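User: Run a structure prediction on this.
Assistant: Running it now.
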Amino acid sequence: MASFNDTLQQLVNKECPEIRDLAASSLADILPILQKIDTDNNGMVLLHAVIMAAIGADGKLSPKESQLLHDLTGMNNEQIDKFTDVYSSKMVDLCDKFAAALNADLKASTVLFLACIAAVDEKISREETAFLRKILE
C-alpha cells in the first residue's frame, strides 16, 4: 500500500484535466454535507472556508490553483482574489469542526478534493501535507 506522501505525489504527477475531474468527483461527494451544515448559503460559505483553510496552509495561490477554483466554483479572478484576501485562522477552526463531523469516507473525499487543489500547481508543500493529514485524524 502506498504511503500518504506517495499518494500525494501520484496526484501531483497527474495532468490538470484529470486532477480537475477528481476534484469535481470528490466535491460531489462532500457538497451534500456542506449544504446540510451551511443551510443558509447552500453550502457555499462552508465550501469556501474549507478551500481557504487549505490555501492558507502555505499562504500561496498559484495561477493553476486559481484556474481550478474557477473551473469548480465559477468564481472569476477578481472574486478569487477577494476570497483569498479574507483568509483567517477562523476558517481553519471552522474546517476543523467540519472535518470532525465527517465519517471516514467523507474525510477521504474532502482530503482528495483539497489535495487536488494543492496538487494542480505540480507540488504539495509540507504545510499543505500537514493540513491534509490533520483532516484525516
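The chain is about 75% helix and 0% strand.
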